[in-house]
Recover the amino acids of this structure.
């Protein structure tokens, strides 16, 4: 049987494709078998658990500039957040904004001077219906089913920054350059990031996993940041949200933020 | 057929090497960007998409516009387009390639691009964008190649290509609709949160793409022995006119909704772009140039005497293309990010490296276009006089 | 039989051979001794001999540590599971490269890099995960 050159090339092409495909498929199959089995892994015993982590911010407890700086630098130091010294490349997980920037178009010319002028602590809201999770093409940012935290998988992020466009709160930062030279005091127990990935507050999952509260909550003035399980009827956050007047940033967008700002402040700490 | 791309005279090779030099400088600066990070561009925490994604958005429109030749020719038997449909399909290939390249240079971790395939995310518009773009590239490569090689042999293309040709019509619409969805579904950015975003995109695509095709057809007529013909160019001119009218109308609708409703979130981006805000006027001259070009070119196209004169037609097309490039390739993206989500004005302007990389990608796209057109034109020159049945 | 375009073909062949053999002649004289990863870190030496057990056996770790670390990473970051029970020893480990593996194997240069350099492999773990500071003396 004689075949001409064109047929030969077609047969050769298809067989090599099949050959490469089959080898690749069998290689991955082997690796899957050799992986670790789910029963071998488990969470830490001391981990804090919740169905829906949320935070209540009571700005009346933040009195001095030092209060703000301690809160912010607790987070940024624990997580090796770099300081580039310019707004363009800036990375911040938690910071302060004036009322008109934290809650745009909600101010009025005659509102209380104090509210208009005091800075508000803002961070990722760990929304119940996060736009960033909806748009991420690789699920590098995802919502944890167990506790509702919107988490970052830095290993998978391709740096497309769609999540940054989607976030209505500007909570996300991108590593526009190598962050390592700009980290003042390295925390050796937490990784840094590399250029080309997006990062944001993760509600300190690594601390929750060992039974500690988020760094900002610990460092904030007593009662300034209250952290707890909104789904637990007896938690402090739930009680505050049920009994007091709280507002959330851009609540009309349907994102369902989990960070509530307390109006009027609490008497006790 | 491929060898035709490497047979040419002095002018051809001068053009190819000029584009090659631009491409190489783009690659050189991209390597710099790859090593340093995207901080080499003008992008910032507040404006996280800029020139690269703007160019991608614009070029998806150009790619989709091939459908303006395919529909009349294949669906409505408009034989006059039979010789130039290939030019539209090849333009689509070149444009989609540029889209893919722009996305690649914009990524923070391009080496992880396979994650999009390894972890498909059906709720992510960007995932679907990559799917439809790849599919459209494959479709056009297949259709262009098969039809052109049949033309070369003087026979009708094989029947099995017809379903793919028909598929390319809704597919072309889909690539630009999905790209519009990247913008139109984001909750915080009111400049983009508009139901007519996809319609605007399609209208500007169907105006800008054919306008470019007119210019390319005129160039082809001038530098080669292949004459696309006066009538196809005129028909394209009519298509451009209607599409541009739709585009300008839809833009007007956006203005109306923003300003008649008086909602600050909707107005602020328009104000920044067209009037400046808080002392920042960076984009004002550009945006007004775009609007004036749009109005003037539309006026020129609407008047039959001006449209029928090929010189004034080409001038109108150049202005139209420039207007759409500014509007879609730049203004649209920046307007969504300024003011930022905290209502602050943090402006953006591309850096030198960013611009050279952009030029480099355009050069690569134009190189591909040159090679593909050279092949197509060589076939047409050889088969001049033979009736083409599609 | 005449070789048409003989000049171009020979030049092309030469260029191809130069490219194809580049890895070989480029590495002449470079380190090619068998890798010998060292286990004499302070943390390991402190433990009594019987207890010096890694997460899994040496043979398993040698071939599978990449996949193990990949799976650990997905498990910790995506599922929140942080404790791993070893198949071989039953010991419980914290699933962390930076805080567990490097606790014992704190000599990255004489351990991890030994084999990685030999194999010309550059894992990008260290772009983010902080490698332990090493004394360049010992």
């Amino acid at each position: 049987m004689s075949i001409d050159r064109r047929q030969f090339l077609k047969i050769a092409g298809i067989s090599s494709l099949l050959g490469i495909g089959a080898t690749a498929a069998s290689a991955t199959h082997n690796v899957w078998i050799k992986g670790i089995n789910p029963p071998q892994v488990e969470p830490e015993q001391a981990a804090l658990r919740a169905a829906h982590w949320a935070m209540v911010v009571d700005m009346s407890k933040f009195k001095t500039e030092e209060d703000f700086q301690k809160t912010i630098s607790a987070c940024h130091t624990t997580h090796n957040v770099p300081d580039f010294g310019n707004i363009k490349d800036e990375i911040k997980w938690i910071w302060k904004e004036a009322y008109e920037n934290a809650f745009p178009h909600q101010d009025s010319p005659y509102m209380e001077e104090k509210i208009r002028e005091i800075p508000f602590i803002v961070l990722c809201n760990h929304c119940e219906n996060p736009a960033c999770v909806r748009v991420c093409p690789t699920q590098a940012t995802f919502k944890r089913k167990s506790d509702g935290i919107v988490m970052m998988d830095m290993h998978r992020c391709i740096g497309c920054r769609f999540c940054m466009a989607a976030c209505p709160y500007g909570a996300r930062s991108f590593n526009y350059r190598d962050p390592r030279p700009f980290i003042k005091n390295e925390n050796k127990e937490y990784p840094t990031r590399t250029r080309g990935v997006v990062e944001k507050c993760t509600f300190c999952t690594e601390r929750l996993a060992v039974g500690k509260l988020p760094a900002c909550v610990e460092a904030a003035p007593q009662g300034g940041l209250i952290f707890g399980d909104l789904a637990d009827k007896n938690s402090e956050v739930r009680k505050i949200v049920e009994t007091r007047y709280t507002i959330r940033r851009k609540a009309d967008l349907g994102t369902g933020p989990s960070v509530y700002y307390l109006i009027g402040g609490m008497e006790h700490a | 057929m491929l060898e035709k791309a490497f047979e040419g005279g002095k002018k051809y090779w001068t053009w190819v090497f000029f584009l090659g030099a631009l491409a190489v400088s783009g690659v050189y600066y991209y390597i710099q960007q790859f090593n340093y990070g995207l901080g080499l561009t003008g992008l910032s925490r507040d404006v996280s998409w800029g020139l690269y994604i703007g160019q991608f958005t614009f070029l998806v429109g150009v790619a989709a516009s091939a459908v303006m030749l395919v529909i009349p020719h294949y669906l409505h038997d408009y034989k006059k387009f039979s010789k130039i449909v290939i030019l539209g399909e090849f333009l689509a290939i070149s444009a989609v390639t540029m889209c893919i390249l722009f996305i690649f240079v914009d990524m923070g971790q391009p080496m992880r691009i396979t994650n999009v395939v390894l972890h498909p995310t059906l709720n992510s518009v960007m995932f679907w964008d990559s799917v439809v773009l790849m599919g459209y590239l494959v479709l056009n490569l297949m259709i262009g190649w098969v039809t052109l090689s049949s033309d070369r042999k003087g026979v009708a293309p094989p029947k099995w290509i017809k379903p793919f040709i028909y598929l390319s019509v809704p597919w072309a619409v889909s690539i630009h609709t999905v790209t519009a969805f990247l913008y139109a579904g984001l909750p915080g950015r009111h400049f983009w949160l508009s139901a007519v975003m996809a319609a605007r995109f399609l209208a500007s695509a169907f105006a800008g793409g054919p306008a470019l095709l007119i210019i390319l057809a005129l160039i082809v007529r001038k530098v080669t022995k292949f004459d696309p013909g006066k009538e196809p160019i005129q028909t394209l001119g009519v298509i451009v006119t209607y599409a541009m009218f739709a585009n300008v109308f839809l833009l007007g609708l956006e203005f109306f909704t923003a300003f008649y409703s008086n909602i600050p979130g909707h107005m602020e981006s328009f104000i920044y772009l067209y009037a400046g805000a808080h002392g920042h006027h960076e984009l004002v001259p550009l945006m007004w140039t775009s609007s004036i070009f749009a109005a003037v070119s539309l006026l020129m196209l609407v008047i039959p005497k001006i449209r029928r004169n090929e010189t004034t037609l080409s001038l109108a097309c150049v202005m139209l293309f420039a207007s759409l490039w500014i509007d879609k390739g730049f203004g649209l993206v920046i307007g969504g990010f300024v003011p930022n989500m905290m209502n602050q004005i943090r402006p953006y302007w591309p850096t030198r490296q960013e611009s050279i990389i952009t030029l480099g990608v355009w050069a690569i796209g134009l190189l591909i276009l040159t090679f593909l057109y050279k092949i197509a034109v060589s076939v047409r020159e050889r088969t001049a006089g033979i009736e083409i049945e599609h | 039989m005449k070789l048409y375009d003989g000049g171009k073909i020979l030049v092309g062949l030469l260029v191809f051979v130069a490219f194809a053999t580049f890895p070989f002649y480029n590495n002449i004289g470079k380190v090619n001794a068998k890798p010998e990863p060292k286990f004499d870190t302070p943390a390991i030496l402190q433990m009594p001999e019987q207890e010096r057990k890694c997460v899994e056996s040496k043979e398993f770790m040698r071939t599978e540590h990449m996949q193990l670390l990949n799976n650990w990473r997905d498990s910790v970051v995506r599922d929140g599971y942080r404790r791993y029970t070893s198949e071989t020893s039953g010991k419980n480990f914290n699933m962390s490269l930076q805080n567990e593996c490097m606790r014992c194997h704190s000599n990255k240069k004489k351990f991890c890099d030994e084999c990685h350099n030999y194999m010309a492999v550059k894992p990008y773990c260290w772009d983010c995960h902080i490698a332990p500071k090493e004394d360049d003396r010992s």
